[in-house]
Amino acid sequence: MRTVCLNCLTEFRYDRERNRWYTVIRQRNGGYAKQIETYFDKLNLRCPKGCELDPVTLDHPTKVIGFVGESASSKSHLIVSMIHSMMNDPHLASRFSFIVSPKSASLWTALEARLLDRRALDATGPRRMAMDQTQRTDGLAMNAQRQSQGHTWAGLEQRRPILVTAYSVHTASAVNLAFVDVAGEDIADGAVAARVSPHLAVADFLWFVVPSTLNKQYLALMREQADPDDQESLSNIVEHSQTVGRTTLMIDQIAKLWRAANSYPIQLPIEPPRLHVSTIVAKTDLLSLLDLPEANIVAPPPNWADSPVSTNGSGNAYDPPRIRERCEITRNMVRQLFPAVDSALSIHFPWNMYFPVSAVGCGKRGNGTYPVFKPYGAADPVVYMLEMIEELRAYR
After folding, report:
1. What pLDDT digit, counting tens, does each position of 213-262 carry?
2. pLDDT (tens digit per residue) in 117-138
3. Could you give the residue ranges of the DSSP H alpha helices within the chain?
4. Do residues 111 and 248 lie in contact, with contact meaning Cβ atoms separated by under 8 Å?
5. Could you tell me the pTM of the whole model?
6. Residues 24/34, Cβ–Cβ less than 8 Å
7. Do residues 370 and 291 lie in contact, with contact meaning Cβ atoms separated by under 8 Å?
8. What is the Cα–Cα distance from 231 to 347, expressed in whole angstroms?
C-alpha cells in the first residue's frame, strides 16, 4: 500500500507481510524501490519528517490528483463541482461511496455551500512565500518545524488538498483521492513553478484545465451570439484572460518539471500507468453559442441552465466506451478551436483524454453570482479515473 505525506510529499509503502513501513522512490519504469525501514509516530500522527498526517492516509492507498491551470480557468469551481457530483450522483452511488476526510470537512463544506448558494468562489492567484506568523512554542511543534526546514517548499503558502476516500461497493476496497490545486499562473518560470507546485512530482493523475474561451476569435463570436446576461459574463476580461500561448507554455513546462522530478527519460512520452493525464475543456456551456457540429454533441443545450435536472440529466456519459467516444469528439473540436494546445499535449502526453465540463452550468454574472448551479459532465472524469485505479478492482 502506497501513501503520501501531503505536506512534505514523502512517499511510503506498507509491507503487509512484514508489517513495516518503508520510504520509497519512484523508478523510471513506474515501479517502486524500497529504501529504508521507516518509523511512524502513530501516536501523534506524524511522518518521519515531523509533518502532521491525516489518519486516513495510513488506512488506504493515496492517489494525488493535480489540477493545472490559470486562475481564470475555474480550477477551484471544477474541484468542488466534481466532488459534489461524486457524492450526489445516483449512478455513481450504486458503485461507489465517497467520504470527505474529517480534516478536509470544514474546507469542503464552506466551498460547497458557497456554490450551492450560487456564489462564485474566490479566485486563487499566484502563491507567495509566507511569513512565519505562527510561532509555535510547544516542544513537539518546534521539533516538527526544525525537521521541515530542509524541504524545498518550506515557507510557502500552500493550498490545502481536499482528501476524499472512495469505497467500491462491489469489492469493498478503498483509496484516498487527494485533490490538489496545482499552480499554473507562475509556470513560465520553471524554478518558481517547481517550488509552488511540489505535488506535481507525486501526482498519479494530472488534469489540465483549458477554458473554452481560449481562442479570442471564437470568444468574439460567442459575444455576438450571446444574450445580454451572457454578454456581461463574456465581456469580463479577467474571467477570460487565459490565452493559447500561455497554455502551451504551461503544458511544456509542466512536462519538463515532471520529467526532472521523476528522472524520466526526455525522449519517452509520459504514459500510464505512471501518470494518467486528461484535459478538461471548462466552461463548456459557452460552446453552445458556436455553430460547430462537435459542440452540438459535447456541449450542453442552450436551455441547460433553465431546465430541471430531471429533463435532461447531468450531461454525463457514465459508460466507459461512451466516455471514450465523447473524448474523441472533443479532441476533434479542440483541434479546430485551439490546435496548438492539442499538439503540445500530444507531444508530451499522447494518451491524454478530453472531457467537456461546465462546473456550474452557466456564466457568472457581474455581481459574482450564478443564476443556477447545475454542473454538466462533472462526473465523467471521476468515472474514468476510478476505472484506472487498480486497487479499487481488487477485493480487500
Report:
1. 888 888 888 888 888 777 777 777 777 788 888 889 888 888 888 887 77
2. 988 886 544 444 333 333 333 3
3. 75-88, 90-93, 102-116, 139-148, 190-196, 216-225, 228-234, 244-261, 293-298, 309-312, 320-337, 339-348, 380-388
4. no
5. 0.84
6. yes
7. no
8. 36
